[in-house]
Amino acid sequence: MDVQPGIRFKCCLGQENRNIFLDSPVSLDQLKQKIVAYFRKPNLNILVVDTEGKRKRLRTQDDLDQCLKSVDAQSSSTAVRLVLTSSTDTTSPPPPSPFDELDSAGLRDHPPFDRPYRQHMGTFQRAELRKEPSARRGAAHRRMPSDHNPHTLDLPFAQLTVNDVDPPLPPPHHHQHHHHPHRADAHRPSSPPPGFLDLPQHSVHDRRWSSDVNGGGEFIPETDDQPDHRYEQPSRTVRSTGSAHSFHSFRSTHSASSTQSVYSGGGSQRSQGSHHAVARVSVKDVFTRDDTESGVFDHESQVRSALDVPDRLRSGTYPRSSAPPGHVAVTRIGGPYTLPRERTSSSTMAGEGMHRVPHTAVPTQSHFSAAVRGPTMPVRWRKGKLLGSGAFGKVYLALDDGTGAEVAVKEVELDAGEQPSGGAVEALEGEIRVLSGLRHPRIVTYLGTKRTPETLSIFMEYVPGRSIARRLRDYGAFYIDVVRKNTRQMLQGLEYLHNHNIIHRDVKGANVLVDSGGNIKLADFGAARQLQEIRTVTGFKSMHGTPYWMAPEVVQGKGYGRRCDIWSLGCTVIEMLTTKPPFYNCEAMAVLFKIGSSNEDYKACIPDDADEGCRELLEACFQRDAQQRPSASALLSFSFVN
Ligand SMILES: Nc1ncnc2c1ncn2[C@@H]1O[C@H](COP(=O)(O)OP(=O)(O)OP(=O)(O)O)[C@@H](O)[C@H]1O
């Protein structure tokens, strides 16, 4: 199938950032229409920003064509940066953009920011990590902690290169993407503004669908144009139908005429080795203003997670007791609400096969009270007990004195005498600011940061049930059903992160937290590189960590992308089955060679008595060639996790 070329327009109006994708050839009218639709302001001036930061007004189709020509000339770039200003204010300077903020903070030219802001924030870096001057490295080794643990590793930091090795996606091809069985997820639509859902074009069915972090993320393409159609999942995603709609008046959206039957597309699909519940809902009935205020509005994952009935009902995330009779309690981003339950003869509450949510679903306003918003960044807070310590700092429980909620706070010591240069701390703060826009039931929510001269405190959602690693220590290896459920939920979290261009980089049992309902949340994602940088400058200047979960391309310093998380996920599955990751009986240095050496067959580490489906998934995860590893989305269709 021919895929038309497409152009991404990164639009910035004041603090609001949107990505708009348009197929070529792009017409100015089309662009203007999109801008009006997305920013809900008519007659905006459109200024194009060139690579040197100069702005030029786009008035005519010719201007646009010229501009697109210059984009074509730079083969690596298909993005056009636009600044929008109010047309009533043609003389005043354009509104501030995140780039301006970085400029004024002197950060933009700092190495971590030598790429566009969002690309950096999206954590897919092509830039090599800065190399430590050798003298400093020497000092680093002198200052390495003496408590050597054979299972941890101190490497000169500069050995790691972070590259987005994932090849680019073909450009978007709207309107027809549903029809191609293999490319259904190979298109990325534009990110809608809060309260706006451009569903006709960008249905939730498109799993490439991704709103940006705080509305303006750099979209780094996924890798599924790689030949892993064999892993393609036919119809697992939730389809959403509906028209563009404001979420700002919740009550008015519940008219009896809404279309929102939820049904499975032909019931369960065991032929693919899995069940696929295909739901059709009117998203306007699922989301409210609360969702749109969270800074990110990921319709697909939210719809999917809201309707991931098998998982939730099995695991008890939905507090059934909280639902009135005849209703299903549903945990939404930020909290629960209820949907009337209606069973059909082929449905079960475990979600096997068909389940229906009739159009009379009526969440009430009371369900959307403060309780559903989840934790927020505390203004005044008190430190509680130590929850644990890691390579980068200690994690404490803390009480938010404003709301009474408990949150977790990771304290990273900053060496006051040797402040990190080059804005490493600011970079981390910026990263957390962006990451705190992410919301998904399978990831720990970052809330924000606070800094004193001695400490950087990173606030997070508190997950009470301890990590998988800790549970393995306490109880021993998990039964296969728990491994299955945890794996599925980890994949859901990874899918969400990867769709938002975040590589976790440190997937392992210690970074998978379990809540009191036995559901997992991925922790410690996205910020590892900045933390590493801070520790590099202020602490023992080395890469400190444990290599057992590392992917070969990471160890080999080749540069890596999202698929390194898939390898680590495989190691974590082994960890859950046996309590230890592969080769844990070897010292850290030895295991590095094993990981790096193509002679070492990781598949041999799969326990002999492993479930057939589990073996299939692990073999896929342990493909040495990262490109051969399926994506998180593809793995979600494997029989083991269904
Ligand atoms: N949001 C959280 N809620 C509850 N407990 C947490 C939270 N974040 C971390 N913890 C606890 O604190 C411990 C230390 O976490 P931290 O992220 O500092 O280190 P780690 O992940 O164990 O190790 P490393 O830093 O080497 O990856 C974790 O093992 C976990 O038990």
UniProtKB/TrEMBL annotation:
Residues 84-277, 312-339 are annotated as: Disordered. Coiled coil: none annotated. Keywords: ATP-binding, Kinase, Nucleotide-binding, Transferase. Pfam families: Pkinase. Residues 172-182 have a biased composition (Basic residues). ATP binds at K410. One of its GO terms (molecular function) is protein kinase activity. Residues 234-263 have a biased composition (Polar residues). Residues 106-117 have a biased composition (Basic and acidic residues). SUPFAM superfamilies: CAD & PB1 domains, Protein kinase-like (PK-like). This is STE/STE11/MEKK2 protein kinase. It comes from Salpingoeca rosetta (strain ATCC 50818 / BSB-021).
